[in-house]
Amino acid sequence: MYFAPIEEINGFKVRPGEYLHNGATMVEGGISFTIHSNGATACTLCLFHEEEDEPYAEIPFPESYRIGNVFSMTVFDLNPEEFEYAYRLDGPYDIKKGLLFDDGNYILDPYAKAVTGQRIWGERSQQRQKFYKARVVTGTYDWGDYKQPNREFKDMIVYEMHVRGFTKDFSSGVEHRGTFAGIREKIPYLLELGVNTLELMPIFEFDEMEDVRLYDGTVLYNYWGYSPVSFFSPNTSYAAAMEHNCEGQELKELIRELHKHGIEVILDVVFNHTAEGNEMGPTFCFKGIDNNIYYMLTPDGKYYNFSGCGNVMNCNHPIVQQFVLECLRYWVVEYRVDGFRFDLASIMGRNEDGSPMSKPPLLQSLAFDPILGKVKLIAEAWDAGGLYQVGSFPAWNRWAEWNGKYRDDMRCFLKGDYGMAQAAISRITGSLDLYNPEKRGENASVNFLNCHDGFTLYDLYAYNEKHNEKNGWNNSDGDDHNNSWNCGYEGETESAEVLALRNRMRKNAFATLMCSRGSAMFLAGDEFCNTQFGNNNAYCQDNYISWLDWDRKEQYSEMFEFCKYMIQIRKNHPILHGHSGSCGCGFPEVSVHNKTAWNSHCDGDTKTIGVMFAGRNADNTEDDVIYIGINAFWEYQDVQLPNLPLGRKWRILVNTEFNHTADVDYQALTQWKSQDTIVMCPRSVVVAVVEKW
């Protein structure tokens, strides 16, 4: 291999760097710095002492160190622990053409593995007000003899959580509150609950101080993190330990420990926009590198805003495609994550002019990339520009979707809305009207009733209206169409009747979710009735509104034990996840019933339905037949279960009419009018299984 001779520039020994390795890379005796720009005419590497905002050295890239549009330079004798770095790029400035080069701006390396100045959550440093700098990451992680769970998609029970909010409250009882280490301390809890997949809300470096404001005595932050600053860097404030030059170690330890216990990790990622915002926003990265490439621009150089956040990434430009692909490969290889949930993913299918594409190149590349071949790809199949693609998101048999129609239809049916029975049946049985099994298989639908965006499960049945007053926008933010029901009283109440109904409605919702085909997802804290006090858009609330209150686990222990029980039922009966073989007793794989067995007729007034799944158990040794009955009506109903062959009987596993205890006998508590007919309480759910006499 040929090495160019070493030169000296401004007192530093340099030579051409590693052109094929973007970012800052350790090499023998030095560090290679590589960045590319189509429009820049010159580039300068700027070195800073820690926490300083003026560089102690500037090293311009010689023209001979540029190949094509790539600037690359190895600088020798640098100690990674003694400096931070950024770039200055020069070039044309023409707003109407989308060119924003300014040699006076310090530009963050888009491939930075660590961003400085972000270590302490909520701290407004002088540096943060100006620009972002990067640090060279030198730490390595030996995964050793390592195996990922590689769980089937349909078997996932997904637990969506905010890293900070999960353990930040003192009631969590962990030592390292609000961190990756705090989650690791809670692994025994996750195992007790029974979930097998964590979906982490954004962990890419973001600036919680972006648009920080004081409202009514409370500091409001960019708490959720859906405004990325850097795509290759974990949020340094989420680490309990100081990880100077070895960022990511704590996260890797967490992922390794989760995998050891069979729990997969999915990252919620944001490639639809960045924290640079619109024309009024700062220039700290892509705007100063190739603004007209990385963002969708109008003909006069302004920013399209299909994200609702000021700008839109130009995802199907080849340069941006390459960036996204390299980023996801990095997280899979270096962090061994098991999948990605893509925020506002419909934007990733838009052309450079904003129009939807039938075969978006980026989505297709991700679907067929070898490194990503085993990971889950999950789309939030809509965007803020009105493009709604639930059931029609480009898939190539690889992409799954957050099933927003499951959420909406099931919420409506469970509270007794008119004309929702047939839609509910479709959602419970796998949404085959949306996902053709011959084209999409059983790996398309992520069923959910609650997520970070909207009401918690507790609030869903405690509030008719959103209560976002503490967000400071006069309650104008957040969704106005929640399909919620307060069960007769808005907010907290001491009415025993209302409280009992709410408890039953929560259990109905969770039981139905666990008995629906597709993977199942719920929001952290729903299992013990965590509340956001009616706030359905708590994006800025870094406080008791968003933090999990673990004291409620004891207060609502019945709900917690019920959720554990339902998760175990789902695990014990693979027929609930999807096809599991032919049933020996002759029942069809899926059958639909109303109050009368084998009568599948539904009309607008139908509010009582039954769905029976029939197949084989996990060992393929016995039939696995399970029935879920839902009475969304406000009166008692006689419900006939299907007749069984000789030697078989129905056993009631669940009946939400009754409180759940460790020794509850739902079979004995349920009222039977005949051998095959039960009496269902108003607004209740039963789950029954076929057993031998």
Structure in words:
There is one protein chain. By secondary structure, the chain is α/β, with parallel strands linked by helices. Among the domains are: 7-129, Immunoglobulins (Immunoglobulin-like, Sandwich), CATH 2.60.40.10; 579-692, Golgi alpha-mannosidase II (Immunoglobulin-like, Sandwich). It is built from 15 helices and 30 strands. It has an eight-stranded parallel beta barrel with strand order 12-13-18-19-20-21-22-23. Strands 1, 2, 3, 4, 7 and 8 form a six-stranded antiparallel beta sheet that branches. A five-stranded antiparallel beta sheet has the order 24-25-26-30-28, with helices on one face. A hairpin with an 8-residue loop joins strand 5 and strand 6 (57-60). Helix 6 (318-335) runs parallel beside helix 7, helix 8 (404-414) packs across helix 9 and helix 12 packs parallel to helix 14. The chain is elongated, with a radius of gyration of 27 Å. The N and C termini lie far apart (77 Å).
